[in-house]
Amino acid sequence: MYYKVSGVTGKLTGASAASAYSPQGLKPAVPSQSPPMIFALPTKVVSEAGPAVHYMGINKVPDLQKIFQKADGAPVHLKRGVMDKMLYRTTMGLTIGGTLYCLMALYIAAQPRKPQ
């Protein structure tokens, strides 16, 4: 069953499927003409481009699947080598440093002020 808000009472009332999909005040509109092109050059549809398109690049998914599905015991975020390890260690270092800085700032803020 479909529901809609009654314009009179402001409560939910039962509605047919046709009225539930066209809210009050909004009407489905189909443009009579297509909008103008945004870009000056016409675009190529993939079906018109032929079997291989040079600008789509090489499909790297099978290679990446082999790397990430290898059972070597390493976590997924470290499987791609040295760069992943550097990023991980940098992130952990910044996280630990930020935590220590916050704790130090809280400790300093908790100390009473010395009378002047």
UniProtKB/TrEMBL annotation:
Source species taxonomy: Eukaryota, Metazoa, Chordata, Craniata, Vertebrata
Gene3D superfamilies: Cytochrome c oxidase, subunit VIIa
InterPro entries per record: COX7a, Cyt_c_oxidase_su7a-rel_mt, Cyt_c_oxidase_su7a_sf, Cytc_oxidase_su7a_met
Protein name in UniProt: Cytochrome c oxidase subunit 7A2-like, mitochondrial
Protein's GO biological process: mitochondrial electron transport, cytochrome c to oxygen; mitochondrial respirasome assembly; regulation of oxidative phosphorylation
One GO location term (cellular component): respiratory chain complex IV
Record's subcellular location: Mitochondrion inner membrane
Transmembrane intervals: 87-110
Pfam families referenced in this protein's UniProt entry, alphabetically: COX7a
Membrane topology recorded in Swiss-Prot or TrEMBL: Single-pass membrane protein
Family statement drawn from the similarity comment of this UniProt entry: Belongs to the cytochrome c oxidase VIIa family.
UniProt pathway annotation: Energy metabolism; oxidative phosphorylation
Record bears the keyword Mitochondrion: yes
Keywords, sorted A to Z: Membrane, Mitochondrion, Mitochondrion inner membrane, Transit peptide, Transmembrane, Transmembrane helix
Main location: mitochondrion
